[in-house]
Amino acid sequence: MNITASGLLLIQRIQQGLGSRWRNFYYKAMGVKLHGYVWMREIDIPRNFDEIEIESFCALDQGVTLLCSGGTLSHPKIYLGAYTYINRNTFLDATLSLTIGQQCGVGPGCYITDHDHGVDLSLPPLAQAMVSKPTKIGDRVWIGANVTILKGVTIGNDAVVGAGSVVTKDIPEKAIAVGVPAKVIKYRI
After folding, report:
1. Is 117 an annotated catalytic residue?
2. What digits encode the pLDDT tens for the residues 167-187?
3. Smallest Cα–Cα separation from 148: which of 173, 176, 114, 125?
4. CA dist., res. 82 & res. 103, Å (int)
5. Residue 130: beta bridge partners?
6. What angle do CA 125, 52, 15 make, to 5 degrees?
7. In which element (H, E) is residue 21 found?
8. 35, 75, 115, 117: which is the annotated catalytic residue?
9. Percent of the chain with pLDDT over 90
10. What 3-state class would DSSP assign to 50?
């Protein structure tokens, strides 16, 4: 690598670091509970900043969206544990409680939610009431790319969910689950 290329890489890293520091300052000032430094690329938190809590040393990559809707609660609607990495273009969507533990890896393009709409035939889809149940992902969980995790699911510590899976039911601790819907295929030893 020549001097010009390495100089440009250094400038790019400095810009990214300053941008992340600025986003930490901005989102903290807006009400997001940040416990220490969080590495943030260009993410989107459109509203309800004070309903999000993020522990130190988390990383949120480009295009991550954290969305909280519904009435105010006494606890955070989205909680991210320390040292957790949320990859590009992942969408966390909460109305009640969406918790991701410590040291987790969430692949790109995932959708994780704690709610959906009702199915009353007499009402159009967007007039349906929200149906919410807490979604919880334990510690050291690995979620592959493009995984969808639906409301009310608990994923145990040290579990792995394969790319492209749709999780509709609980995944036990140390399980490896894949498919649509996701099913346990084996356990980590």
Report:
1. yes
2. 999 999 999 999 999 999 999
3. 114
4. 6
5. 117
6. 110
7. helix 3-30
8. 117
9. 86
10. helix
